[in-house]
Every structure is written in C-alpha cells, then in structure tokens.
C-alpha cells in the first residue's frame, strides 16, 4: 500500500486514477495483456516506493503546448523523441519523449493482443519507469529531466511526455574519426557514470539494453537517456551456479552471496558492456605511445572483469593525470632549438591536412607544449612552421596549427610562430 501511495504522489492522484480506470473499466484488454499490464504496474509501484523520488517539479504541459519548431530527433522501439523550442521565458531547445505509437514495441503488442489502448498503456509504463529513475538519479552522466506533462484529456489513453535536455545521438563511426583525447573523454564520462550507477541511491543499477544508441552527447558530455530497461535488482540465487553472466563472446561465473544475490552482477554487466561497445573501439588507436600499456591494461582488466568499477575509474584517472601533466612524453633530444620564434599575425589560411585534425582547414592537433609541437612538426614531411594557439581542449592542452606555407606570414602580431630554421633562412625572415 505504501508503494501505491508513493506512486500516487509521484504521478499525481488523478493520473493514477486514469491508470486504474483503464485496468478495470470498459474495453477491457484480453487476459494475457491484462496480466502484463498488472505486472508492469506492480513493478512500477515497487520501484516508486524504493526510489522515493521527489514529487513532480519543473516544466509542465504549458511548456509542451507552447513548444515550437518541433522536429524528429530520434526514435527507438518504444519511444519517439522530438526536438522543440520552449516558449519564453526559457526559450531553450529540449527533447520531448513520448510513446512511439508506430514503434515496434506497440505494433508487436497490437498484433499479439489486438488492443491498441492497452498496448499503448503497456509502453507508457516503460516511459513512467524511466521518469521515476530520471527523477531519482542525479549525475552529469544521466540526461537531465526538465519536467513532464500528463495529458488526461485523452483519457482513457493517458499520454505522458517527458521534457529532457536535448543532446545529439552518439555516432560511433564519427567518433572513430575524432582525436584520441576526445574519444578518451567519452570513455572517462562512461566510467564515471558506471561508478555512480554502481553506488546509486537506489543500489547498484544495471543497464540491460546497453548500446551506444541509448546515449547522447550534451555539450560534449556523454549521457544515458534510455533508462526503461534499467534494473535495480541484483539477480537472486541459491548456489554459485545460478550466477552465470553470459555474453555472446564470453561468459563469467560469479559468486552467490550469503544473502542470496549474485555478487556485483549489475556492476559487472555494465563494465563488460562498456568494454565491448565502447572501450575496444574508442580507447586504443592513435593513443600516445607511452600511454598504450596503461590502456591495454584497462582493456584487458575490463574484458576479463578483473577490475571492478572503482579500480577501472582509478586506472582512467591515472591515464588522465599522465596525459595532462605531459609525463607520457618520452625524454628525447630537443627539437625546438631548430626553430626560430617570430611574432606574427594569426592567419587561418588553408594548408596541408592531417589525420584526426581538430580543424578541417588544416592540420590542428593538441600538444603539451611547443617542444612536443616541434617534434610533431619534424615528423610531418610538409611541416615548415607551427603556431601554438590560445584555443584549448577539454584537458586544458593548447591546440597547435601546423603549416607548410611560409609566404603568407605577416610579421608583428602577438602570436608566436615557430619557423624551421632552414626555412626561415631561405625566406630571409
Ligand atoms: N535527450 C535526447 N536528445 C536527443 N536525442 C535523444 C534524446 N533522448 C533520446 N534520443 C534519441 O532518441 C532515440 C530513442 O530514445 P530512447 O529513449 O532510446 O527510446 P527507446 O526506448 O525506444 O529505445 C535514441 O536512440 C536517441 O537517438
Ligand atoms: C492533449 O491532447 C489533445 C489531443 O491530442 C490536444 O488537443 C491537447 O492540446 C493536449 N493537451 C496538452 C496539455 O498537451
Ligand atoms: C588478457 O591478457 C591475457 C594474458 O596476456 C590474455 O590471455 C587474454 O586473452 C587477455 N584478455 C583480453 C580480454 O584482452
Ligand atoms: C568503491 O567506491 C565507492 C564510492 O567511492 C565506495 O563506497 C565503495 O566502498 C568502493 N568499493 C570498493 C569495493 O572499494
Ligand atoms: C600560400 O599562401 C599564399 C598567400 O595566402 C597563397 O597565395 C598561396 O596559394 C599558398 N600556397 C600554397 C601552396 O598553399
Ligand atoms: Mg533506446
């Protein structure tokens, strides 16, 4: 009963009434669907009681009604996501999530049960579950909830819309073509999220449907957006044999603890999924040479589930420290003394391109300092000069622009260009 009250508080009593109305009212769904609906409702009630989420706050139906510039941004099997501009005063762009009536989830259910209202409602429970979780979890790696709208004028088919911060879907192919530093950030964001989920206020949470498409990027930060398939229960067991964690390529045997739960199964499931969907693709290639052993260790330890989430996070933080402090740079003879420093005006002229450049006009890479930039310039056949720009990456490292063309240098500005000594002589700079 306490769960019922929690759910009522959460949804607002009239919304709960609408749910109840359908369950015992007219146009009763067939018994098989009815059973599924009751199961979902029970699960939602239990979750709400455990979550003790704060009551609904933030934006409501007025914001949804007044939204303009509505357009498709994504859809999955259950939900449809639209981008929209909120009315003043906020005027911000948000994502509006609702049940996808034409999605696979609802249409498969309709084929099976022939009851569109009941099927929509079944899917609505998923959205409501996600809403409860979004309200209870607070972390930069969880998409932010701005509000929600329950449209009861559509009774008995209650329509729920959640208002979320707008992101961009994660494009793995595109990510593979970004600099290592940016790919490392995605992985670091992910492990920070998994650390939070393993120690969340609701206990250890597993993302059962763990795939890149359940995440979005908001201002360069990775966030999980699809939470309807999250589990806050650890698998119950009697003996160790009950605790098998199976993946297509590998399976693990876990221990059954004295209180009858598979030890750390949620944390381990997330970690192995992070390894197979993210780390193997994003972490190793084009990483600085001296960091590769540390990255290999992270890959091996997560791929074998030797590390828990705490140790993995520590290992990531160590790599970040080595990278930021330049400790990964091998001690080599200085190249910088082969360059002449000249004060110039900065020009964004087109020049030679390089792999994983931060600019599509030319070759722009992040460096620790001018010394590292000199070593990079020496390793590029076309490079005759470089400028360490005031632009910084997320780790605080400056971006350096490498160029081959010397004829466009204008002396006298406040940027420093490092020109190869031999070239400077040739051009009599
Ligand atoms: N906040 C958001 N901003 C931008 N796109 C989003 C957002 N949330 C979800 N999406 C996009 O919509 C798709 C479907 O959302 P999701 O919650 O995963 O629904 P489903 O449960 O049907 O898989 C996602 O794969 C993603 O591409
Ligand atoms: C509820 O849905 C109806 C029918 O689609 C629509 O006309 C109405 O504006 C909606 N109300 C809100 C608050 O969004
Ligand atoms: C981890 O390293 C061991 C020993 O080198 C190797 O046998 C194993 O295949 C590696 N596992 C993964 C997932 O990389
Ligand atoms: C992992 O870290 C969390 C929070 O920092 C802590 O509460 C927990 O005890 C740690 N777990 C282990 C196994 O060290
Ligand atoms: C070098 O820069 C000058 C001046 O901007 C330009 O006219 C010339 O085409 C450039 N040369 C090359 C090879 O890009
Ligand atoms: Mg999804």
List keywords for this structure.
429 residues; binds 2-acetamido-2-deoxy-beta-D-glucopyranose; 5-stranded antiparallel sheet; binds magnesium ion; 13 helices; Transferase(Phosphotransferase), domain 1; binds adenosine-5'-diphosphate; Hepatocyte Growth Factor; alpha+beta; single chain; 3 domains; 38% helix; disordered N terminus; Phosphorylase Kinase, domain 1
Describe the structure in brief:
The chain is an alpha+beta fold and 429 residues long. The chain has helices spanning 2-11, 13-24, 31-51, 61-66, 104-113, 116-136, 172-175, 180-198, 265-282, 292-303, 309-324, 370-379, 421-426; strands at residues 68-75, 79-85, 93-99, 145-151, 159-165, 168-169, 206-207, 215-218, 221-224, 230-231, 244-246, 251-253, 339-344, 363-366, 385-392, 398-403, 415-420. The longest helix has 21 residues, at 31-51.
């Amino acid at each position: 009963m306490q769960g019922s009250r929690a759910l009522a508080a959460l949804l607002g009593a009239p919304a709960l009434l609408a749910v109840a109305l359908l369950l015992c009212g007219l146009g009763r769904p067939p018994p098989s669907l009815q059973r599924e609906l009751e199961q979902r409702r029970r699960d939602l009630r239990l979750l709400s009681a455990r979550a003790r989420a704060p009551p609904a706050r933030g934006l409501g139906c007025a914001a949804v009604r007044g939204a303009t510039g509505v357009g498709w941004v994504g859809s999955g099997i259950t939900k449809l996501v639209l981008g929209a501009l909120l009315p003043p005063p906020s005027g911000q762009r948000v994502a509006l999530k609702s049940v996808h009536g034409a999605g696979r989830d609802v249409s498969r259910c309709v084929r099976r049960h022939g009851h569109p209202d009941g099927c929509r409602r079944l899917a609505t429970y998923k959205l409501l579950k996600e809403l409860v979780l979004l309200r209870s979890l607070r972390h930069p790696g969880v998409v932010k909830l701005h509000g929600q709208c329950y449209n009861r004028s559509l009774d008995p088919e209650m329509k729920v819309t959640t208002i979320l911060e707008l992101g961009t879907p994660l494009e793995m192919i595109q990510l593979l073509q970004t600099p290592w530093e940016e790919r490392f950030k995605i992985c670091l964001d992910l492990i920070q999220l998994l650390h939070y989920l393993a120690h969340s206020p609701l206990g250890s949470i597993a993302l059962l449907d763990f795939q890149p498409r359940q995440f979005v990027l908001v201002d360069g930060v990775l966030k999980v957006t699809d939470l309807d398939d999250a589990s806050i229960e650890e698998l119950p067991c009697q003996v160790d044999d009950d605790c098998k964690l199976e993946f297509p390529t590998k399976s693990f045997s876990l221990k059954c603890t004295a209180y009858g739960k598979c030890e750390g199964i949620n944390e381990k499931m997330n970690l192995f999924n992070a390894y197979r969907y993210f780390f193997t693709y994003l972490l190793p290639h084009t990483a600085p040479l001296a960091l590769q052993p540390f990255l290999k260790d992270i890959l091996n330890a997560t791929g074998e589930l030797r590390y828990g989430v705490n140790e993995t996070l520590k290992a990531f933080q160590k790599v970040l420290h080595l990278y930021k402090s330049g400790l990964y740079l091998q001690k080599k003879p200085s190249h910088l003394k082969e360059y002449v420093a000249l004060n110039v005006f900065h020009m964004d002229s087109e020049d030679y391109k390089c792999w994983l450049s931060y600019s599509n006009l030319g070759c722009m890479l992040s460096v620790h300092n001018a010394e590292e930039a000199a070593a990079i310039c020496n390793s590029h056949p076309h490079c005759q000069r470089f400028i360490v720009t005031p632009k910084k990456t997320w780790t605080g490292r400056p971006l350096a622009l490498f160029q081959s063309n010397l004829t466009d240098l204008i002396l006298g500005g406040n940027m420093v260009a490092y020109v190869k000594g031999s070239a400077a002589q040739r051009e009599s700079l």
